Structures
1.
Amino acid sequence: MGALYPEGFTVKVYSSLFLFCGLGGGALGFLRAGARLFGHEARFRSLGGIDNDAGACADFQYLTKSPALCANIATMQPAALRAFGGVEPPDGMLDSAP
């Protein structure tokens, strides 16, 4: 894997979708976090965030460098959620509900 990682070191990147994402502070902390144990490392990448506040969505995009959908989750249809998050489900869905 090059000079950064010793031979046999594995890195797994998990996808995550942030519901009620707010301005993205929680998501940013989560994306900066990781775990390293016994030659394995886990990291996270954002598929995006969903919130009903346009200002929060703009901040989320700025902070996390990932897309935000300004919508009311309570009224979203599953097809709209899949269209935003992708066909494959995320490895994890996190929320920062009020």
2.
Amino acid sequence: MKIRQTQSFILALKKTAKRDRGSIHEALARLEKAEDFMGKRLRYPLDDCRSIRTGSFGQLRIIYQVLPERAKLLLVGERDGYQVYLEAARLLGRSTL
């Protein structure tokens, strides 16, 4: 499957700890090799997105949008307080209410 990284994803990846970048790249390699989409399907307002757990102790989330035959990487960040999900909704211009 084709993967497209957004600017927000690239910036968020640069902010992650170096020890976690290896596991992020491994998860992205698995996603690229997969024939079907990976991760947990998200709910409204991110119902066309999925989340992959990665990082030390699984505290990081890779949020990507499911598009026909490809994935658009939106964000990577800590799940802490659902902030990564709120930020992904903001990037897509969607209300979280």
3.
Amino acid sequence: MDTRGQLTCWGRDDYGQSSNAPTTARNVQIDWSFGCTDNASGNLTCWGSDLEGRSTPPADAFSDYDVNYAYGCGVRRSDGGLTCWGTDATRVREAPT
């Protein structure tokens, strides 16, 4: 990402993780098969593999977020709670209470 927020991706593109990236970005988190960026309101746009919902984040606004190999998690702006999306094969999405 350059100083104007212009995003350029390269490398493997098996799932559109390079070619389908948005051209403008704010904060970018990218892993092996998908990536996400947020806008000023905290809403996420994700691209790449959507296997098990990886690149389909919830409609919540987030104050912070991160993506990993097969899932993403974010801190909701509304109440500070944690929301995760994507695969849950090893129960990593289940936040402790």
